Amino acid sequence: MTESEDIAPSLEGVLKDEILRMYQEVADNPRNEFHFFHGREAAELFDYAPEWLDRAPSGAVESFAGVGNPHRRSNLQPGETVLDLGSGAGLDAIIASWQVGPTGAVIGLDLNPTMCLKARAHATAADAHMECRTGAMENIPVPDAAVDVVLSNGVINLSFRKRRVIEELFRVLKPGGRLSITDIVSAKQLSQSIVNDPKLWAS
Amino acid sequence: MFRLLEETGFTRLRSAVEPRFRFRKVSTQVSAEAFGVKAVMMTAVKPA
């Protein structure tokens, strides 16, 4: 597991910029090819229900860049409050909103304010309700014990301070609250050349 | 990450490999396999 002590602060800034740039590019140019599958192709790969993908705005589906399907085990219930960590263009948050219904709430969190604007617009178009807050997963702008469920899809692996992120998730969850996350893990310590390569890190 | 979840205080941890995850670029997938990179689904609960 790579933590901040392995990354010089200046490099952390460079890598974070590359992450922002990479995912902005996915949103702006969904027809480009990337290291990873994205869009409807990726969502279908992970068994997202076709009716969800047909109902959600095309912009949200095209920009999907998850690594799995956190909805499989989220067991969302009407009335629950959900945090979608790294909400991007909003597909997972929109699906969550449909499941928790009008008595529930969905909070998206993204580092990129432009993505938050896109996500909110997609949610409105999808008759879903979500708010999106701009901020870092290492300092989640949500009060203690505020959410019932945290969803995250391929995001925590991008952090250089994963312990801090997990601690934040613990803080914002209500007692008895739950996580349903999908993410990238590695069995071996990544080489420093990979850690230092912004494009590989962001992928 | 599983260890971090446990150390932070989460309980009822469950995980499963996402069998269909792979990188689009073959060279990236080959490198990923060399490091045992995979996608994992995880659920956990904050104690009540």
List the topology elements:
The complex is a heterodimer of chains A (203) and B (48).
Chain A: H1 9-28, H2 39-45, H3 50-55, H4 58-62, E1 81-85, H5 91-100, E2 105-110, H6 113-125, E3 131-134, E4 147-153, H7 162-172, E5 173-185, H8 192-195, H9 198-202
Parallel strand pairs in A: 1-2, 1-4, 2-3, 4-5
Chain B: H1 2-8, E1 11-17, H2 26-34, E2 38-45
Antiparallel strand pairs in B: 1-2
Brief account:
Chain A is α/β, with parallel strands linked by helices and about 200 residues long. Chain A has nine helices and five strands; from the N terminus they run H-H-H-H-E-H-E-H-E-E-H-E-H-H.
Structure report:
The complex is a heterodimer of chains A (203) and B (48). Chain A has 203 residues and is α/β, with parallel strands linked by helices. Chain A has a single domain (4-202), classed as Rossmann fold. In chain A, 40% of the residues lie in helices and 17% in strands. Chain A is built from nine helices and five strands; from the N terminus they run ααααβαβαββαβαα. A five-stranded parallel β-sheet of chain A has the order 3-2-1-4-5. In chain A, helix 5 (91-100) links the parallel strand 1 (81-85) and strand 2 (105-110). The longest helix of chain A has 20 residues, at 9-28. The model of chain A has no long low-confidence stretch (mean pLDDT 87). Chain B has 48 residues and is an alpha+beta fold. Chain B has one domain (2-45). Chain B has two helices and two strands, in the order H-E-H-E. Chain B has a two-stranded antiparallel sheet with strand order 1-2. The A-B interface holds A 1, 33-37, 45-46, 67-70, 72-73, 154, 156-157, 162-163, 166-167, 169-170, 173-188, 190, 194, 200, 203 and B 1-5, 7-10, 14, 18, 20-25, 28, 31, 35-48.
